[in-house]
Design a protein that fits this description.
Chain lengths: ~375, ~240
């Protein structure tokens, strides 16, 4: 009877398309909104992801997330180096500075000052130049998106596109001259500001005058040491907060989840997708069953068991579910692919696919249960009513 | 004419009431009726007299409140719901007033449905269905969808569907009421020709006096009772016991 069930479903083309469109829409909206949400959340800790070398980040106890800088005294670096289990510890400056462009306009940039000796914490991928070029006089490395967009030199001719920043170009950071010695590729950050790397000693010259300028201490653990234990030791010895890279990422995400309206906004969009999908698909599936009630009644009269009819409904729900889910996820993937190198944050790990699949299964199950109730209560004698 | 012999259906004091309290509507008020194998029995009478309720009880798709209804020695009330369903699938064929063909299935596939319900593999079921469609003169329309067939052709498909699994009892509800006189006559001729068999009975509910001539016997109902059972339409109105 599977064949009969499928033919009944696809035979009513308008309703079949209506159900599939409803499920596709729900699946697309849920998948896409969750992927954008996940992409945005990933951007909040993009800087931590880029700094892959340190096992442990050391910071002031009051720091809540990566951009919440509460500078430390420079002597803290030496105290951390003295803790058992620490292989190396280097300083990191992180701050927002105003860069003056060649046309006189200002642009806020994210400045990273790396340890002068080791350059630990540098960008993960160099597009042009080398990390070591930072040791050249006044050298800075700029991220390629920033170089192409916000830090680009405006065209002299109105209407023409700006010229991307290139190696050898200069810009002013807090009235200090900086020369571009390299172009790098980094993860997009939440604020999407251009990223500029330089050495720690140069960064503290660029930075506004402050008593404390050490943003973080980056720590590498000795081989065989458990990072969490090292964190505890650092905290016990210095009173500073020390967290592993993964923990710092989650700490940052938790901050954004707790103190911004982002999860609520996306949650509403996802719930809306679920609701609209349920209403469209559920209602159309219900109508489809009502329209076919007489046919189901005839099948029941002719000897089809209720279980057989229920299996037919489940099969129909399964088919529209699989097609709707596939189309929705496929469209969401296309959106992600099309916006791969754009400002749109989009990240679709397998968990999102599983959540979307669960939502579609739930919608189909609800629709099927509504339809099943009708068929279970169906009196075969109704087939003789004209 | 096929000789009527054994008992196909036996109803004894069958009563059925719809609703309860002040809304009670007695549909059957004690029906006694025998349908014999090899005969075509017509149930006739005015609208609301209980004809459809009676064939629903005979076909096991509606439970009577009182009395007994035996079909080929099997009493419906003695069977479980599943046994009833299986018995219907094996032993009873249905022809409906509105044909009730599945619009998305071809004529052959529609005819094959009772076999598919019984678990016959699809290919084999459709082959058997084509053979029955040949018998009702629609062998060349096996692949047509119901919407591509005329009313008469659709009813012939429905008759083929009622026959395909070789049931012992065929119940037809107003099989000619949706058809013009000529097509209705052809459908009745076909029913007599291909559906009647020594081990099978046909019960037809109809309003259509133009087809009474095809009956072996006619049971006239009124107000939930059998008023008369006659051998010929000419005898309708004369006194006779059921």
């Amino acid at each position: 009877m599977n064949f009969v069930a499928l033919r009944m479903l696809v035979g009513d083309r308008a309703k079949y398309i209506g159900i599939v469109v409803g499920l596709t829409f729900a699946s697309l909206l849920i998948t896409q909104q969750l992927a954008i949400f996940t992409g945005l959340m990933s951007r909040t800790f993009g800087a931590i992801t880029d700094l892959a070398q340190p096992d442990v980040w050391v910071m002031d106890e009051k720091v809540q997330f990566i951009d919440d800088i509460k500078p430390l005294q420079s002597t803290e670096l030496y105290r951390v180096r003295g803790v058992s289990g620490v292989e190396w510890a280097v300083p990191l400056y992180k701050g927002l500075l105003k860069a003056r462009l060649s046309n006189g306009t200002f642009q806020t940039v994210n400045l990273y000052g790396l340890d002068d000796a080791t350059l630990i914490g540098g960008p993960p991928t160099m597009v042009q130049g080398q990390l070591g070029d930072l040791r050249r006089s006044e050298g800075v490395i700029v991220d390629e998106v920033g170089a192409r967009t916000r830090l680009a030199r405006p065209s002299a001719t109105p209407g023409e596109p700006p010229t991307p920043l290139e190696i050898g170009d200069t810009l002013e950071l807090n009235d200090h001259r900086a020369v571009v010695v390299g172009i790098c590729r980094v993860q997009r950050t939440f604020q999407s500001q251009p990223v500029v790397y330089t050495t720690f000693s140069r960064a503290v010259q660029y930075a506004p005058r402050e008593r404390k300028l050490l943003s973080f201490v980056l720590v590498g653990c000795k081989k065989g040491e458990d990072a969490h234990e090292v964190c505890e030791r650092i905290h016990a010895a210095t009173g500073l907060a020390a967290v592993t890279r993964e923990d710092f990422q989650w700490q940052t995400v938790r901050y954004f989840l707790k103190y911004t309206g982002i999860p609520v906004n996306f949650g509403i969009a996802v719930a809306l997708g679920f609701l609209v999908g349920t209403v469209i698909a559920g209602q159309t599936f219900h109508n489809f069953t009502l329209d076919n009630l007489k046919q189901f009644g005839a099948l029941k009269a002719m000897g089809a068991r209720t279980g057989t009819l229920l299996r037919m409904i489940v099969l129909q729900a399964l088919l529209v579910g699989v097609i709707g889910y596939g189309l929705g996820v496929g469209l969401a993937s296309l959106v992600g692919f099309a916006t791969k190198n754009s400002e749109l944050a989009f990240r679709m790990p397998w968990q999102i696919l599983a959540i979307s699949a669960s939502a579609v299964i739930l919608i189909c199950a609800l629709s099927a249960v509504l339809a099943m109730r009708k068929v279970i209560r169906l009196e075969p004698a109704m087939v003789f009513k004209s | 004419m096929i000789q009527a012999t054994g008992t196909a259906v036996l109803c004894r004091d069958v009563k059925k009431t719809y609703g309860s309290g002040p809304d009670r509507v007695p549909a059957l008020r004690g029906i006694d009726l025998e349908v014999r194998t090899g005969e075509l029995l017509m149930l006739v009478g005015p609208s609301g007299c209980g004809k459809t309720t009676l064939i629903s009880v005979m076909a096991g798709i509606l439970d009577q409140d009182e009395g007994e209804c035996r079909v080929f020695e099997r009493e419906w009330t003695q069977m479980s719901s599943r046994e009833k369903t299986d018995f219907r699938g094996r032993s009873i064929g249905f022809v409906f007033q509105a044909f009730n063909l599945l619009p998305a299935l071809s004529a052959a596939e529609n005819v094959a449905v009772p076999l598919l319900i019984r678990g016959v593999p699809r290919r084999q079921a459709v082959e058997q269905a084509r053979a029955v469609l040949d018998r009702v003169g629609l062998g060349d329309r096996a692949k047509s969808l119901p919407a591509q067939l005329s009313g008469g052709q659709q009813q012939r498909v429905a008759i083929a569907r009622a026959l395909v699994h070789g049931p012992n009892l065929i119940v037809c509800d107003e099989p000619t009421s949706s058809l013009d006189q000529e097509t209705g006559h052809k459908v009745m001729e076909l029913l007599r020709e291909v559906a009647l068999a020594p081990d099978r009975a046909l019960v037809i509910v109809t309003h259509d006096a133009r087809v009474f001539e095809f009956a072996d016997r006619i049971a006239k109902m009124n107000d939930g009772r059998i008023e008369q059972v006659v051998d010929s339409p000419k005898d309708l109105g004369k006194d006779r016991q059921p």
